[in-house]
DNA sequence: GAACCAATGTGAATAAGGGCACAACGTTGG
DNA sequence: CCAACGTTGTGCCCTTATTCACATTGGTTC
């Protein structure tokens, strides 16, 4: 176990490993080798061992990894042995469908606030019981409800301004669905989810690959 | 201009550049330097020049890049000077909201087919006029409507089987929203959109960064 | 309890990617 | 027409990430 700087790619892969391991757990697989896990995750076995080695020794030589244990270890590493409170900003198509989406809760992410600017939406009750607040109340509500992570699902034009408000409210982690690069101070970590980019990438491969 | 293998990261960035350039175009900016564009995209200026250099010389020394031209050039590179037909598989929360989402059409991606297994959904007409087909008809409909790219928005459990069917139907590009790694032959290109991974990544930063 | 087995953990080798710094070269001004 | 300027395009280097290959070591068997 070292204290080297951990590559971002490693963190991403840990998340993938965890998901695969959780599936294996449901299939009552108790132990798995890096080789088999690697195949299932589509990576190199050495990669898995090295990724894990950043954080400790979790395997048993000659045997492999104990699935249930490893899931817990990775959860601990990623900071997932707790729950995180999310705030959704923007309740258009994407925003509303994400709030209804069950995968968040399943992994310990709980929406505790939702915002929009549309007066027709403000005050409405969402399927999960949340009442929509106006964006003007953002800072107050976010502090009040102990929100840790902001989710931006507004149109592109509003994203930067929302990000600014989130940061003012003390948020240090943002998941951005708007198709723009938002600028934030170093203390804040932004992850972009941009399927247009992914589609462009597919288009490129289809055009050149043939 | 070389014929080296293009890094995937370059393709992703080209897509980002294009989006930023399109914004600039709407603000009537005619010419831009790599330095200014870089700042706006959050990358290194040399990176931009190098990315573009893979495909040709698009700038004017001492001046910069002509915005409108560069947009077209990048479109040409990525294969976006045409439209692409998409098929949505899975009309749950995410699937339906994506179909309603305007950004796809704006960038030349058109849904020409939609599938689900739920008998209550099959036959229904979607807001964009598409009638939902049963997944059993997938291969037939996809060939008939000349679909190029499959979008998987099913639960995790169904994703691999849907992917298999898409590939049988001759699809070579898949955008996967299901939170699993799907296995496909080399001829098919898969891009995953997995916000759980992104959230885990934020959680990691929040837990360690403080 | 000793010898064998199998899969881990890791140092070294390889590959890839990103950034600096400068030469090349249009453009503009005198 | 020439010189000065500014930004591109790119060779080189450095950093980072991935893969290989093997020594290490817990478990298992006889």
Automatic annotation (TrEMBL), chains A, B:
Binding site for NAD(+): 90-95
Keyword Heme annotated: no
Gene Ontology molecular functions: DNA binding; DNA-binding transcription factor activity
Any one Gene Ontology cellular component term annotated for this protein: cytoplasm
Record GO biological process: negative regulation of DNA-templated transcription; response to redox state
InterPro entries, sorted: CoA-bd, NAD(P)-bd_dom_sf, Rex_actinobacterial-type, Rex_DNA-bd_C_dom, Tscrpt_rep_Rex, WH-like_DNA-bd_sf, WH_DNA-bd_sf
Subcellular location: Cytoplasm
Residues covered by the CoA-binding domain: 79-181
Coiled coil: none
Chain residues forming the annotated DNA-binding region: 16-55
Domain of life: Bacteria
Keywords (A to Z) from UniProt: Cytoplasm, DNA-binding, NAD, Repressor, Transcription, Transcription regulation
The family this protein is said to belong to: Belongs to the transcriptional regulatory Rex family.
Its job: Modulates transcription in response to changes in cellular NADH/NAD(+) redox state.
Subunit-structure text: Homodimer.
Record protein name field: Redox-sensing transcriptional repressor Rex
Organism for this UniProt entry: Desulfacinum hydrothermale DSM 13146
Lineage: Bacteria, Pseudomonadati, Thermodesulfobacteriota, Syntrophobacteria, Syntrophobacterales
């Amino acid at each position: 176990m070292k204290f080297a700087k951990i590559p971002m790619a490693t963190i991403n892969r840990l998340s993938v490993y965890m998901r695969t391991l959780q599936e294996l757990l449901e299939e009552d697989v108790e132990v798995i080798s890096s080789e088999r896990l690697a195949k299932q995750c589509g990576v190199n076995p050495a990669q898995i061992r090295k990724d894990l080695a950043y954080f400790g020794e979790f395997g048993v030589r000659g045997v492999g990894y104990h699935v249930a244990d490893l899931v817990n270890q990775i959860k601990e590493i990623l900071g997932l042995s707790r729950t995180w409170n999310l705030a959704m900003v923007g309740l258009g198509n994407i925003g509303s469908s994400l709030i209804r989406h069950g995968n968040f809760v399943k992994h310990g992410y709980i929406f505790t606030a939702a915002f929009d600017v549309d007066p027709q939406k403000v005050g409405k009750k969402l399927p999960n019981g949340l009442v929509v607040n106006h964006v003007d109340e953002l800072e107050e509500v976010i502090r009040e409800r102990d929100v840790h992570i902001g989710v931006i699902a507004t149109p592109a034009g509003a994203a930067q301004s929302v990000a600014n408000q989130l940061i003012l409210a003390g948020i240090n982690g943002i998941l951005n669905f708007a198709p723009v690069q938002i600028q934030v101070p170093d203390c804040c970590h932004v992850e972009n989810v941009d399927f247009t980019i992914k589609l462009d990438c597919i288009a490129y491969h289809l055009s050149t690959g043939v």
